[in-house]
Amino acid sequence: MSLSPRDPLVLARVVGDVVDPFMRLISLRVNYGQRQVTNGLDLRTSQVLNKPTVEIGGDDLRNFYTLVMVDPDVPSPSNPHLREYLHWLVTDIPATTGTAFGNELVHYENPCPTSGIHRVALVLFWQLGRQTVYAPEWRQRFNTREFAENYNLGLPVAAVFFNCQRENGCGGRRT
Amino acid sequence: MATATPTDSMHRVWSMSSLKSSLPSAVTCRLPSPSSRRPVLISSPSPRLPSFSGLSPVNPLISTGLPGWQSFEDGFKIIDGGGRVYAMRHGRRVPKLNRPPDQRKALLRGLTTQLLKHGRIKTTRARASAMRKFVDKMITLAKDGSLHKRRQALGFIYEKQIVHALFAEVPDRYGERNGGYTRIIRTLPRRGDNAPMAYIELV
């Protein structure tokens, strides 16, 4: 089903800033500990320290998927000049399984925003075949659209995002 | 009409004909005294040139053709710009935010400072929608960019680094956009008091 204009991904502009409008084809469930990540969930840095458990749907084990976790609001939402920091990249995930069965090309780095509230998006792509996707050289200035273009991943098949902010308060007033 | 008293030094050769022609007929005119802010008394026998003080006294001696001169109060027509006072809240659009005016202003200043600093903040829906006007105003000041506007922004925003950063980056970021520099996304209510919350972010 294509995204309605009131879909949380569209409202939070994840669809504008990170990916293009797509259709949801596969179910994607992300759990940080006991907490299931719904779109727009508020998490603190302490709650996202360890990598989440991700389960994807689909039916055929011969289909492989790539999961990308990016933060488009680095270093601060008001000034995102390092747009899109790559936190996690897992490829060759067979359908109906999870990231434990995939190939972790870029290991998980917990989001640690210093300023403001950052959106962190997990985007799932369908791969054409195994071992067709490679890791980029740097984590920052990652561009999800270009990445999908380079490795022929096309439009995403699923996405979810959450909001992450620093542990206590906003950092106080500096002169 | 603003007071038409010319300064003595400049208009010695000012002729009376222009004044006489603008006044109603059958009036012996005299120039008003320099302190024209004094309210003009109805009881004076000779009619004077009326000056603006919010009340325009209609002199019964001048035949302007207005009917209905019954009493003293009828002589004063209040010119006030059309403000009406209702007993109910009809038509009042300023959000009070449950605070006295000084605290309200301080709250809005603080919230706009934080939004401009962080880019996205989470607050209650009423505060988020009350803030929009002030954030847009700050960004408009930054778009103008002159020193006067910068000083006006410094008088509103609490941290001067933010003002300087704003004036530096707003022209490229919001150059083409006309207004609507914020976006509000409603979210789940707060747990402690079930207050409806919202994210407000700079577009």
From TrEMBL, chain A:
Belongs to the phosphatidylethanolamine-binding protein family. InterPro entries: PEBP, PEBP-like_sf, PEBP_euk, Phosphatidylethanolamine-bd_CS. PROSITE patterns: PBP. This is Flowering locus T. Pfam families: PBP (PF01161). The lineage of its organism: Eukaryota, Viridiplantae, Streptophyta, Embryophyta, Tracheophyta.
From TrEMBL, chain B:
Keywords: Ribonucleoprotein, Ribosomal protein. InterPro entries: Ribosomal_bL17, Ribosomal_bL17_sf. The keyword Ribosomal protein applies. GO terms for biological process: translation. Transmembrane segments: none annotated. Signal peptide: none annotated. One of its GO terms (cellular component) is cytosolic large ribosomal subunit. GO terms for molecular function: structural constituent of ribosome. It comes from the Eukaryota. Belongs to the bacterial ribosomal protein bL17 family. This is Large ribosomal subunit protein bL17c.
